Amino acid sequence: MIIWMKKNYQFSIDPKTKFPSFVSTLFNWRINGITIPYETNYQKYIDSITVKDLNLKMINHLIKAITKFVIRDLLKEYLKYNKPEIPERSYILRVLDYFITGHPFTETYTFFYCFLWSIFIILSFSLVWDNACILFGIILRPLLSNSLKENEKLQESKSLKMIIKEWLILSLFYTKPLMGNPFLSIDPRDFWSNQWHQIYSETFHELGYFPVRTYFKHNKTLGRVLGICSVYLISGLFHDYTLIVAFNHFSADYTTFFLFHGLLLILWEVIEGRILGKRKDIKD
């Protein structure tokens, strides 16, 4: 059904329009990920990178990777042996109880533990990016060397080597980190759309948001609300599926969690007036 919805949305725009495959989007999986201004000549940015710049960049990533690895492992040991007692009642229901009865939905230590766990997750994603950049640098180093023969330099612009070189430079020097600064988010939209990792964002939008919004073209507000819900629903189902595969344990906690945050985002958007179209900076 999801594939059919995606194809229907594709046809509603232009029968000739084709969405890229998931594999191909892995090489461009973050919207606005490049820090170079739009419609700018990339070549001057690429040509300005030297071996010295690469060395400094790799040293920077290496220091960050070692520091994050140490902190992450210390956190992992603490989290492993200091687990709080988790209530059997779902946290969503406990949040509702809080609004109804005023009873706290979590203990102070549990909140602190979750805070440390979120830092652990952020460090893990960030460490993956640093390690990837170090690997990119190792591959890029010989491509930046001056040992190329003159005739190779003349043909470089037409070679696969040049394409790889440009991609590596753009990834290393002009691409935003995999994980931003979630704790500095200014609102829920900024958290989920900018600061948190965007690996699956484009896929979730293609499968959920755009098709649902298209079906409700007659009511844009309803289309946006249901579109947002569909994105968080797909995200929750995806996380629950990984839980089943990894631990052979079925739980709808992730789906409930993401739907709950989707509703919070919608509430925030309504309060700010974005969904209702009262702001000029509406972005899908």
TrEMBL record:
Provide one Gene Ontology cellular component: membrane
Q: Which UniProt keywords apply?
A: Membrane, Transferase, Transmembrane, Transmembrane helix
Give the record's GO biological process terms.
Answer: lipid metabolic process
Say if the entry is tagged with keyword Membrane. Answer: yes
**Parts of the chain that traverse the membrane:** 115-140, 225-248, 254-271
Membrane topology (UniProt):
Multi-pass membrane protein
Domain Wax synthase, chain residue ranges per copy:
176-259
- Sorted alphabetically, which InterPro entries does this protein's record hold? Wax_synthase (IPR044851), Wax_synthase_dom (IPR032805)
Instruction: Spell out the molecular function terms from Gene Ontology.
Output: O-acyltransferase activity
Copy the pathway line from the protein's UniProt record.
Secondary metabolite biosynthesis
Q: Can you say where in the cell this protein is located?
A: Membrane
Family, according to the entry, reads as follows: Belongs to the wax synthase family.
This protein is called what?
Answer: 17212_t:CDS:1
